[in-house]
Amino acid sequence: MDQHLPTQQHTELLRFITCGSVDDGKSTLIGRLLFDSKAIFEDQLAAISATSQRRGMSETDLALLTDGLQAEREQGITIDVAYRYFSTPKRRFIIADTPGHEQYTRNMVTGASTADVAIILMDVRKGVLTQTRRHTHIVRLLGIRQIILAINKMDLVDFDEQTFNQVHQEFLTFANALGFDDIIAVPMSALQGDMVVDRGTSMPWYQGHTLIDVLESVKVDENIQHAPFRFPVQLVHRVRNSGELNERRLYLGRVESGHVSVGDEVVVLPAGVNTTVASIDTYDGALKSATAGQSVTITLSEQVDISRGDMIAQKSHPPRTEKSFSALICWLSNAELDVSKRLLLRHGTQTVAAKIAALEYKLDINHSIHVPTEKMAMNDIVKVLVRVQQPINIDNYESNRPNGSFIIIDELTNDTVAAGMVVEN
């Protein structure tokens, strides 16, 4: 066992989301992935087997591996985002199983916001439904560029190749206009396991990869790695070593996008001070460079007055520093927007007072149209004008997801009431 640990620790991590219409089999598919990849414990299997028997089922209901909430089990639907982790020798995975019902759009937005890939699950008998269109629009809106189209329940159409091809083409006719980089279609039966982890013997006409093969080989979203350098400062630490006259200032945080090397020219925002990187350190020692996702300590060649919430950024491609900007907001709260309430906007390591200054339109995901609106209720996705009390350093979400996203908090209750994405004015 121990000899395999180093390999698992250094394999690449892929985050993916599963979404689709109600009863298309999302939870069953994830259960099959976990079961066939040997990623569940014997006591878990025993527990869901016992539950399945109590319900009078002839086979173990693998959907119970993800439907962990009691309310879900009673209703037989997924109503929250269930996160699961598993790994294969080639890659590590974090799965977000998101709700199918329209009233849980906010949960789906939460699950999709950090995903590299989306699995759009379809029932081969039903084809492209309104829910399919809505989920596909949302994942593209949230910056996901790769889709795996899982055409499920092939066992219920006798694994017919022509039926698969018709559904595949129907989806492409709709989705090609949305500008995805890649759409990979896989026929499968999550219930029986065909083409999920094992190929099975029922679809010899399909020569493509199984779902797990696609997940192991699909590219992780590299946009964050290639985006301009962004380093929101979390903590400033002042030190003075023995014999030194002046104190050194250490800036601690995580590289949110791009990469940085010792000697790079950077700008400190919002002050606008230009300087260079003097050193990059971690607990393991000094580094010559750091990349997106790494938590590091940076020192600069100049002594700059920096506080938590300030940003060190690439000098040649700095972010915008704004007090007013347009954004798409998904409203998460049960209560409608009350413009008189005091709101806080949290962006990176910075929290500032904010207000929704104007509502431009609501996005009708089902019909791909903009609808005038004067209110914002739970699950609505609305383009708004945001004003903040202090300048924040932002990019458009499409080009830089970490630095183009934020949340809005009710100052009185401390509840998160909205998630937002910075867009063009």
Account of the 3D structure:
The chain has helices at residues 5-10, 26-36, 42-54, 70-75, 105-112, 130-141, 161-175, 211-217, 223-226; strands at 12-20, 82-87, 91-97, 117-123, 146-152, 182-187, 230-239, 248-254, 259-261, 265-269, 273-282, 285-287, 289-291, 295-300, 311-314, 320-331, 343-347, 350-364, 369-371, 381-394, 405-410, 416-422. The chain is an alpha+beta fold and 425 residues long. It has 3 domains: 2-221, Rossmann fold, CATH 3.40.50.300; 233-314, Translation factors (Elongation Factor Tu (Ef-tu), domain 3, Beta Barrel); 320-422, Elongation Factor Tu (Ef-tu), domain 3. It has a 6-stranded mixed beta sheet, with helices on both faces. Strands 7-8-14-11-10-15 form a 6-stranded antiparallel barrel. Strands 16-20-18-17-21-22 form a 6-stranded antiparallel barrel. Strand 2 and strand 3 (91-97) form a beta hairpin. The longest helix has 15 residues, at 161-175. The model is unreliable at 1-10 and 68-79 (pLDDT under 50).
CATH superfamily of the largest domain: P-loop containing nucleotide triphosphate hydrolases
CATH architecture designation of the largest domain:
3-Layer(aba) Sandwich
The CATH topology of the largest domain: Rossmann fold
Radius of gyration: 24 Å
Q: How much strand? A: 35-45%
> Unreliable stretches, pLDDT < 50, 5 or more residues?
1-10, 68-79
Give the fraction of residues assigned to helices: 10-25%
General shape: globular
Q: Would you kindly provide a brief summary of this structure?
A:
This protein has 425 residues and is an alpha+beta fold.
